[in-house]
Amino acid sequence: MPESSVLLGAAAVLAAVLALTWVTATGAAMGAGRGLVLAATDPWLETARLLRQRRRTTLRADVLLWRLSGWSLLPLAVLLVALVPWGPHVVVPTELGVVWANALDVVVWAAVWLLGWGANAVAGLVGGYRFLALALGYELPLMFALVAPAMAASSLDLAMIADAQSDLWFVVWMPVAFLAYLVGVLGFALHGPLAAPVGDEVAGGVLAELSGPDLLVARAGRHALLGAGAAVAVPLFLGGGSGPWLPDPAWVAVKAIILTALLSYAAGRLPRLRVPLLLGPAWVVLLPLVVLQDLVVGVVLL
Amino acid sequence: MGLNRVLARAATARPRVHLVEAPGGSPVRWAVEDALEARGWRRTPSPAAADALVVAGRLPDDLRDAADLLWSQLPGPRVRRHVEALAEVDGALDTLPAALRERAAHRDDARERGGDEVSRFLPDDAEDGHMSPGGVPLAEGAEDRDGLEMDVLVHPLGPLLDRWPGGLELRLAIHGDVVADVAVQRAPVTAGAGPAAAWDAVSTTLALAGDRRGAAEASRLRRHGSSTTSADGARLRHRLRRWGRVGILPPAAAGALLAATDTSSTGVPPTDLPALLRGQDLSDVRLLVAAHAPALLLGEAARA
Amino acid sequence: MTLETVLLVASALLSVGLYGALSQQVVVMVMMGLELMVAGVLLALGGLWWFLAPDPSGQVLMIVVLAAMTVEMATGFAVATVLHRRAGGDMTDMTAELHE
Amino acid sequence: MTSTDLAFWLCAVLAVASGVAVFVVDSMARATYALATSFVATGLAVLLLQQSYLGAVIVLMMVMEMAVMAVYMVMFMGMNPALMPMSMVHSHRWAIGVSVATFVTLGSGALLVPWPARRGSPPPDVTAALGRALMESHMLVMMTVGAVMVATIVVGVVLSSHRTRYDRFGDDLRHRDPADRGAR
User: Fold this and answer.
1) By CB distance 3.0 to 4.6 Å, which of A235, C46, C65, C66 could disulfide with A240?
2) Could you report the per-residue pLDDT of A107-142, keeping only the tens digit for each?
3) Which residues of D touch B279 (CB under 8 A)?
C-alpha cells in the first residue's frame, strides 16, 4: 500500500471514531431524556470545559498506571475501528479480525480496572471490581456470539465475513448472537444497563477522581468504545458494505452510525443493572442460547 | 485573544455543579435542582469534575470542615456558593459563569493551594509512622460474609454528599464493596414525610439507579405537589413496582418508596438504618438511604 | 531473528520465571513466576516450530501448553483461596498444611 | 537488520525487562501488569514467528488472566500495595544462582547445538491448518484438553467456595436475598 493511502486510512479512522463518539454522547443523553439541542451541543461545551479545567491527583495515587489506563481507552477504540473493512479497504488488514477484536475488548478489562485502582480511592476501586464482575458475565456470551458469524463465513477475517453476507445479513438468522454481542458492547463501553462501574451511586466509580483532560479522554474513550463496538458489528452481522445506491464505504459508515445511535439511545434510556444481577442471566440464560445459536449455524452449514 | 474568549465562554456556558444538601436544606435543594433543570445545567456525582460547589441550606458550624474538604477536591477553576434561602437561588447560579471566567482570581486561587490539601483532614492518631505511609493507616483484616479474611476499609459516607439526606453521616466498614458494619455518626435533618419529600425520594433514588426519565418525572410531581392518585403518580408507582420486581432497585428500597408515596397508608414506619444496611453492597447503601429518606426523620424522632 | 536468538530470549524468560518461582513467599507471586516460565516455553516452541518443522502438529502442542497454563492458574487461585481461608495467610510455607 | 528483526528485538527486550520488573516493583498492581506486558510482548514475538492465531490468543488470554490475577493479589496480600514497599522473598541468593545457572546452560545450549535445517515448509494458511489439525488428526488432544478444562472449573469452584447456593438461598432456593447479612 502506498504511504498516502495509509495516511488517508488513518485519518478516516480517526474521523470515524470522533463522529461515533459524538453520536454516542448525544444518543445516550437523549435516551436519558435530554433535549436534542442540549444533547448535541453538550459534547462540544464539555470538551471546552474540561480542557480548561485543572488536572488533579489523589493522595498516594499510582499516577503512572492511572494516567496510562485512562488514556488507553480511546486508542483501543481507534484500533477496533481500524479493523473494520470499509468495503474493499481495510486500514489494518488481518486474517484474524475477529480474534483481534476480542483481544482488544479484553484489554479494556485491564484498562478499566487500573483506572479504578490507580486513583487509590474507594469509589474507583469499587468501580474497578464491579467492572470485572460484570465482565465475567458478558464476556463468555460475547465470545460465543463472535463464533457464529465466523463459522458461517468459515473465516476469522472480517472482510471475508462481510462478503459472505451478500445474500442474507447474518443478523437475520443469528439474532441471539447479535443480541449477545450488543450486550457485550454495552459491557466493555460501560454504558446503559452495564454502566455500574461508572454509576452515580458509587460517585462515578472509576471516573470519580478524574478531572480536566484526563476525564475528557476517559469519558470520550468510553463513548468511542460503544461506537467502535457498533462499527465492528457492521461486518459481523449487518452485511458490511452491501447496499444499494451508495458506495461500500458509505454504507459501512451509515450502518455504523445508525447502530451506534440506536444502541446509545437505548443505553441512555435503560436503568443500570445492580451488579449481582447480571451473572446469573448471562450464564444461565444467554450463554446456553448463544451456544444453541452456534449449533444452529453449524447444522445449517452441514 | 478573541478565540480564547470564545473558548472560555463555551467552557462556562453550562457549568457542572456539585450540589450537596445541608441539614434541613431540602426545600432549597429542590429550588436549586429546578433552577439547574431550567438552565440545562447538570450535576456531577463527585466533586472531582465539578466547576462549582453549591451547598443548599444553612450549614451548621460543625459541618464547615466537611464543606472545606469537599471544596478542596474541586480541581479549579472553581466557585463556591452557599445558598441559604429560596430567594438566593437564582442570584447564586446566574453569577456562576462570569465568576468562572475571572482568570486572575482563579490563577491566585491555584497558586494559594498547596500540593497536598487532604493531609490536614486525615486523622492524626496514626502513631506508627512506617505502617501508615503518607499518613493513611493501613487496612486491617476481618472475615467477610463468606468466612474469608479480607481487608476492611473504614469508609465514611456523608455528611455532605451528592443526592444524600442533609447531614447524615455514616461510618461504614467495608470488605471490597460489601458493608460489614454501619454506625450512624450524625443524624440528618430532612424534610420529613409528605408528598413533596416522598416524590423527592423517588426522584433521588431513580437518579441514583440510572433511570433519568423516571427521576425527571418524579421531580415534576414533587414540584407540582401532585397526588399519587393522579395518572402520572400511578404510572410512576407502577414503574417503581416493576424496578423492585426485576431488581433494578433493591426490593426494600422499592417497598419504602411505594409506602412513602401511598397516600392511603397512615405513614412510613421508622427505619433502623444500621440493620437495614448491614451486608448490602455500597451502591445498595446509597439506594436504600435515598429511598428511606422520608422515614429517617421519623426514625430519629422516635428515638428522641 | 534466528532460532538461536529466539531460544536465547526464551531461556531468559524461563530463568527469570524460575527465580520468581523459587524465591517468592506469596503463592500468587510464585504463580507469576511459573507463568513466566511457561511463556518462555511457549516462545521456544514457537521458534522451534517456525525454524525446524513448520507443520500443524507443533502448534497443537503449543495449544496444549497454553491450556496447561490456564489450568495451573485456575487451580493456583483455588489453592490460594483455600490456604487463605484456613490460615488467614498465603505464604508458601503453609502449603505443608495441605498434606494433613 | 530487517524491520522484522527490529520488531522482534523490541518485543524480546520488553518481554524480559517487564518479566524482571514483576519481581522488582513495589506494588502488586504494577507487578501484575508488568507480567501482562511481558505476555503481550511474548505474544507479539510469536506473531512475528508467523503464528498469528497463537499470538493473538496469548495476548487475549493473558491480559484477561492478569486482570483477574490483580484482584487475587489485592485480596490475598495483606497489605496495601500502593503504599508499602514489599519484599517477600526467601533464599534470594540461592534462587538467583539457580536461575543464572539455568540461563547459562539453556542459552549456551541454544547457541551451541547444531540445529538441523528446516524440514518441510509452513502451510499457506497457518490458522486454517491448525484448525484442521485440531479437528481432524489431533482431535483426541482437543477432547482431552476440553475435559481437563471442565475438570479444572469444577475443582476450582469446589476448592474455593465455602458455601453452596443452599446456604445462601435456603433449602428450597426460595430466599430472595442471600441469608448471610453481616459478617459471620
Assistant:
1) A235
2) 998 899 889 888 878 888 888 888 988 998 899 999
3) 180-182
Given a contact cutoff of 8 angstroms between Cβ atoms, the answer to whether B268 and B260 are in contact is: yes
Q: Which of chain B's residues have a Cβ under 8 Å away from the Cβ of D178?
A: 145
Long-range contacts of D132-137 (CB under 8 A, 24+ apart): D132/C56, D133/C56, D133/C57, D133/C59, D133/C60, D134/C60, D134/C63, D137/C56, D137/C57
Contacts of D176 in chain B (CB under 8 A): 251
CB contact under 8 A, C11 and D96: no
Q: Is B28 helix (H, G, I), strand (E, B) or coil?
A: helix
Look up the domain containing C35 and give its range. 3-99
Q: Grid coordinates representing A101? A: 477484536
Cell numbers 479504578 label which residue?
Answer: A116
Return the closest-CA partner of residue D56 out of A71, C17, A106. Answer: A106
Chain D neighbors (3+ CB pairs < 8 Å): A, B, C
Q: Which residues of B touch A274 (CB under 8 A)?
A: 247-248, 250, 283-284
Confidence of residue B302 (pLDDT cuts 50, 70, 90): very low
pLDDT at A145: 93
Chain centroid to CA B256: how far? 19
Nearest to D103 by CA among C40, C24, C25, C39: C40
CATH label of the domain that carries residue C43? 1.10.287.3510
Residue contact B138–D163, C-beta within 8 A: no
pTM equals 0.87
CATH of domain B2-112: 3.40.50.12280
**Judged by CB atoms within 8 Å, which residues 8-67 of B form the interface with A?**
8, 10-16, 40, 44-46, 48-49, 51
Nearest residue of chain D to residue B150 (CA atoms): D75
Q: How many CB pairs under 8 A join A and D?
A: 61
Partner-chain contact B148 D183, CB within 8 Å: no
Task: Say yes or no: ipTM exceeds 0.90.
Answer: no
Contact C46, D41 (CB under 8 A): no
For residue C24, what is the nearest residue in chain D, using CA coordinates?
Answer: D89
φ/ψ of A178, rounded to 5, equals: -60, -45
Runs of H (alpha helix) within B189-281 = 195-208, 212-223, 231-246, 251-260, 273-277
| D135 touches C: beta carbon within 8 Å | no
| Helices first, then strands: H and E counts in chain C | 3, 0
Using the Cβ of B2 and the Cβ atoms of chain C, whether some distance falls under 8 Å is answered with: no
Whether residue B138 lies within 8 A of chain D, CB to CB, comes out as yes
Q: Which residues of C touch D148 (CB under 8 A)?
A: 67, 71
Size of chain C, expressed as the number of residues it contains = 100
Are the C-beta atoms of residues D59 and B134 closer than 8 Å to each other?
A: no
**Do C and B share at least 3 CB pairs under 8 Å?**
yes
Domain count, chain C: 1
Structure-block grid coordinates of residue B61: 458550624
- Residue A177 burial (C-beta neighbours within 10 Å; 0-12, 13-18, 19+): buried
Q: Which of A61, A103, A110 lies closest to D33 in CB terms?
A: A110
Angle of helix D3-22 relative to helix C27-51, nearest 10 degrees, comes to: 160
Interface size between B and D, measured as CB pairs under 8 A: 43
Given a contact cutoff of 8 angstroms between Cβ atoms, the answer to whether D15 and D41 are in contact is yes
Q: What are the tens digits of pLDDT across the range B17-35? A: 999 998 888 889 989 999 9
Reading phi first (left if > 0) and then psi (alpha if -120 to 50, else beta), residue D123 is in beta
3-state secondary structure of D50: coil
